[in-house]
């Protein structure tokens, strides 16, 4: 399998270069959509695509407005569909987020999971941040360290369309809303809906640093964090079949983290 990377970027200069380089050589082609970049991300994308011409840079011609979008073109789902339209139909695509650093060997291994065009591979993640001179892992409201949200997928580009989903982000929640909702914090986001597919999960193959994005930095203390030591003592034994223990070590994370700076 030789899937197309499906990448979208906005102001992610800290992790962008390291993320793109980490998917090589597992992924050898793709589309890199970007919009409203003011931090040097566009220049990194263009240089990467110049060095690897099988990756196509795609500048979205509209501003993305998460709240109170002026038109359909300003909505996130339209942006996703526009970038995905450059991937040939019936080819495989993999959604790559550039605040992740990938283990190319484990990523490539996952390409052997699908046996037919209706199979879908869902990638898990662990949210990581460095502060107070140590690495910490984010624990969600259900007590999960390993998350499988189902948004990062390896999927065949057959009848794929992203649709708008309205989310009420008040109090940092992710509750679905409607156009009739009266909350002042409604976000217009995107959701890929697919039918008649068989879903597979795989081992952890990436490192996620979501709070290096400037717009998320202020949210760090809204979440529950545990140390690597706590994780190994209380959590790892229950999910060690999904996480290779050496991936979540101070030495490994430090090595990965240093590639960002």
Can you lay out the helices and strands and say which pair or pack?
Blueprint: E1 4-9, H1 13-22, E2 30-34, H2 41-51, E3 55-59, H3 76-84, E4 92-96, E5 100-102, H4 104-110, E6 119-122, E7 128-131, E8 134-139, E9 153-156, E10 162-168, E11 175-176, E12 186-192, E13 198-201, E14 206-208, H5 214-217, E15 224-227, H6 228-234, H7 236-239, H8 250-258
Parallel strand pairs: 1-2, 1-4, 2-3, 6-13
Antiparallel strand pairs: 4-9, 5-14, 6-9, 7-8, 8-15, 10-11, 10-12
Based on the model shown, name its key terms.
alpha/beta; 261 residues; Spore Coat Polysaccharide Biosynthesis Protein SpsA, Chain A; three-stranded antiparallel β-sheet
């Amino acid at each position: 399998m030789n899937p197309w990377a499906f990448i979208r970027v906005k102001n992610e200069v800290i992790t962008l270069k390291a993320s793109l380089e980490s998917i090589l050589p597992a992924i050898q082609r793709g589309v890199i959509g970007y919009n409203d970049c003011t931090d040097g991300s566009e220049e990194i994308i263009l240089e990467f695509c110049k060095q690897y011409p099988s990756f196509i840079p795609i500048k979205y011609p509209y501003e993305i407005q998460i709240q109170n979008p002026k038109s359909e073109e300003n909505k996130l789902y339209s942006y996703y569909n526009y970038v995905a339209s450059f991937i040939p139909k019936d080819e495989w695509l993999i959604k790559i987020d550039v605040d992740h650093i990938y283990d190319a060997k484990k990523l490539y291994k996952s390409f052997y999971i699908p046996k037919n065009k209706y199979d879908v591979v869902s990638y898990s993640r662990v949210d990581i941040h460095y502060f107070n001179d140590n690495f910490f892992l984010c624990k969600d409201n259900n007590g999960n360290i390993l998350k499988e949200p189902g948004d990062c997928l390896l999927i065949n580009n057959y009848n794929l369309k992203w649709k708008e989903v309205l989310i009420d982000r008040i109090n940092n929640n992710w509750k679905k809303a409607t156009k009739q909702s009266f909350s002042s914090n409604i976000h217009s986001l995107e959701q890929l809906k697919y039918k008649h597919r068989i879903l597979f999960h795989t081992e952890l193959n990436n490192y996620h640093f979501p709070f290096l994005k400037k717009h998320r930095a202020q949210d760090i203390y809204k979440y529950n964090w545990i140390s690597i030591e706590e994780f190994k003592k209380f959590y790892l034994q229950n999910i060690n079949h999904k996480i290779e223990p050496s991936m979540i070590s101070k030495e490994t994370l430090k090595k990965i983290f240093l590639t960002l700076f």
